[in-house]
Amino acid sequence: MATFSSRYIFFSTSPRNPRLIQGILKVILDGGLDGKEYTRELQAQFYNLYSESDVGVKGANSSKSPDLSGRDKLTRAPQSLGFLQTQTGKPLQVTAAGKQLLNNDLFEDVLMHQMLKFQLPSPLHHETAQNKGRFYIKPFLEILRLINTLQYLTYDELTIFGMSMTDYRNFQVTVDAIRQYRRDRESTRGKKSLKKLSDDTKYAHYRAIYADMITAGNIATRESKTTSESQFMKKKLANLSDYTDAVFRILRQSGLIVMSADRTLSISPVRQREVSYILTQIERKPMPEDMDRSQFDKYMFNPELPILLNDNRASLQSDIVSLKPSTSIDRDLDGMNTYELKSVLAKLRRRQREDRVTAQAKRLKERRDEDIQNILDVFKHISDKEVGRDGPLMLEWNMWRAITMIDHGDIKGNFVTDDNGMPISTAGGGQGDIVGNYGDFQMIVEVTLSTGKRQYDMESEPVTRHVGEVQSKSDKPVFGMFVAQNLTPTVVNYFWTTNLLNHKVYNGSVDIIPMNLATFVAFFKAASHKVLDASDLLSIHRYSTKIARKTALAGQTEDDWHRKVLDYMQEVVCVE
Question: Do strands 84-85 and 93-94 pair parallel, antiparallel, or not at all (unpaired)?
Fold first, then answer.
């Protein structure tokens, strides 16, 4: 049983990517922990297994308190969404909902059912005495209603107004506030900074919510000592940002929502019928807070609750037939159970999203000026930190667009997309971010926004492994390109070394060319105005390997190798 003192909607930020919940559940099942007594020893055992696994964790580090670290991963989002039972005195258990989540074809369906049941307060999450009576809401249900009612919701609007809607009975008040905010933006546009308007509105809005505590001098926070109003508000707004990101990601992973390039949320047109059903049929009142915990758990653990439109066989069959002629379906629909029908529908939807990505790639290869400029704009937004916590995701997606545009290879981005072809989550562990197949060779592209020691710890070995494993299975040349917002010198040294050494496990040396984002942008600008042949890219790899050996034999350093390779790259794309 936990209490919360937040005065805005909260949701666990662990794991940050909802897809990683699958990895947590898989470690429990594969490690034989399911059904064992939930103790501190088991929590530590779980964390040690998780740290050694490759289920989406890049460079997991050891912990001084493995039980605490394990408990953090087990009791946050996995428990809140009903995928795990984690109670002292009871066995650790992957629930029926958790087992369904492990089926990739059912992931969105199960997540959608579970998020619609999440409520504040609940038998699992209780308000503190100071907050008593402030919350009465199913957050994901009402935010979905906001998006539907207003036709769209910007990220700022979600942060300022959506997250402060703690009682569904105040829904219309929230709608009116957002509409007024939109009018304020229109009257400000071209006269004053819209960012300043957003920042000022957010501060004033939440300052009013915490006014009684500030007036009473009750400004200490659990996380750190705060002795002034500004420190107090800074901490509250930082936490707000974290929780907004968590809610934002869950909504997008449900498949019901699509995002535009400026992070505006709207209902996916192909899912509008389902959303309309949800908003008219799902009870808005939360379950009683004093409901027996075992009964609440039974409700939360059941992936068939609440009953939605996509639980209706006729509706599922209709959606399947609308996406693909019945002649292409391997089995008779009437002979399938509900989950089999959902699996077929998920595969068809995934194929439709892949088709949209293919259409994007086809357009990118036309090298339209507006697309070139848009790619450059997104890179600038990422550099200026104007894309929030989704920077890594946007960098991966935009890098795929850039690489796709400048050459004629088959470029596959391993990110997950929504119905608009916009990215939902980054590539999972164990695979490169972007893989380019050029017939005679392959290029693996990895990107990161991490810096310093964290960049070295998280990226050096995993990136080498991704490229090396592809190389070990190929009879054609393979090399990598590593792009970071700011490049750490130790990473350059590491990649120079991997280029020099002959690795038996990887069938030779591993060539990875590191560069910062500004260098890649310069390369892209030049390359977007020159049609590159595949042989041009291959020549960069061959030059990198040759110069690595020359610099080493000449007693030079990684800096000499790195500078010469980047200079050669610019020569390759130089327009004569």
Answer: antiparallel
Predicted local distance difference test score (pLDDT) of residue 532: 78
Amino acid 367 reads R
* In 422-509, alpha helices (H): 452-472, 489-500
DSSP 536-567: HHHHHHHHHHHHHHHHHHTT--HHHHHHHHHH
Cβ partners under 8 Å of residue 373, min gap 6: none
Say how many Å lie between the first and final Cα of the chain, rounded: 69
Reading the block at residue 140, the tokens are 């994901």
Measured CA to CA, the distance from residue 346 to residue 340 in angstroms comes to 10
Distance CA 95, CA 137 (A): 24
* Residue 499: CA count within 13 A, CB half-sphere: 30
Question: What residues pair up with 482 in beta bridges, in sequence order?
Answer: 446, 514
Q: Are 557 and 551 in contact (CB under 8 A)?
A: yes
Tens of pLDDT, residues 9-57: 988 888 888 888 999 999 999 999 999 999 999 999 999 999 888 664 4
pLDDT over 60 (residue 221): yes
Taking only the tens place, the pLDDT of each residue in 540-564 is 999 999 999 999 999 999 999 999 9
- Please give the torsion angle defined by the CA atoms of residues 64, 68, 71 and 77, in that order, rounded to the nearest 10 degrees: -90
| CA–CA gap between residue 446 and residue 463 (Å, rounded) | 7
What's the pTM? Answer: 0.86
Q: Rounded distance, CA 343 to CA 319, Å? A: 12
In three-state secondary structure terms, 387 is coil
Using CA atoms, how far apart are residues 125 and 536, in angstroms rounded to an integer?
58
Judged by DSSP in three states, 471 sits in helix
When the pLDDT of each residue in the chain is averaged and rounded to a whole number, the result is: 90
Judging by beta carbons within 10 Å of its beta carbon (0-12, 13-18, 19+), is residue 214 exposed, middle or buried? middle
Main-chain phi, psi angles of 92, to 5 degrees = -65, 130
Q: Which amino acid, 76?
A: R
CA 268 – CA 281 distance, rounded (Å): 19
SS3 434: strand
Q: What is the DSSP letter of 160?
A: I
DSSP-derived letter for residue 447 is: E
